[in-house]
Amino acid sequence: MRMLTEKNKNYISESPLPFKNSAAFEIWCKEHEPEDSYLWKKEWWNRNRFIKDKILKIFDFKYNIIGSHYSKSVECPVILITYKNVDIILQYNFYDWQIMIKSEKPIILKDLDLYNATGDYFFYQGIPDKYCFKKYSNTNNKQFAIDIQDDLFNVYGFMIMLKQAINNAVMVN
């Protein structure tokens, strides 16, 4: 995980108090933007705009940047989203998306194959040890990992389904 430095101290935080809008994420992106010579710069911006404009919005912009890692020699954020006392850690690496969920209540997910969310590749780049969980299953449904192959539509669909599953868990329990 990236060490806390002067440059990123305002964005990487273990604090439970999340940012309330996408402005801090946009600033982080501008400060960590790859140089023009990097082949993956455009895709890096596409993914980060997707996170800012789509994913954070689904969860009411309650997030923190808790780390970073390198993929294709480009620095990528690791984000902690907090929604209804459930922690959602989001990380991408240009091949797939790692999503870690930590909940006190069981989260029931259905039709994971619909979102291509049945991968077994968990590399945990930049994810704090306390969030390195094993793959989701019916019996492992409180602290688990999801691997989605790199497709923004699948990630978006999964995140909407995850939000609904969290809402259902809160209502049932």
Mean pLDDT: 86
Which structural class best describes the helix and strand composition? alpha+beta
The CATH architecture can be named as: 2-Layer Sandwich
Which of globular, elongated, flat, extended, rod-shaped describes the shape?
globular
Tell me the distance between the termini: 35 Å
Regions with little confidence, pLDDT below 50 for 5+ residues: 1-6, 8-17
Largest sheet: number of strands, sense, barrel closure: 5 strands, antiparallel
| CATH fold-level topology | Yope Regulator, Chain: A
* Strand count: 5
CATH class: Alpha Beta
Quick recap of the structure?
The protein is α+β, with helices and mostly antiparallel strands and 173 residues long.
Task: Set out the fold topology.
Elements: H1 23-31, H2 41-58, E1 63-71, E2 74-83, E3 86-92, E4 96-102, E5 143-149, H3 152-172
Antiparallel strand pairs: 1-2, 2-3, 3-4, 4-5
Helix pairs in contact: 2-3
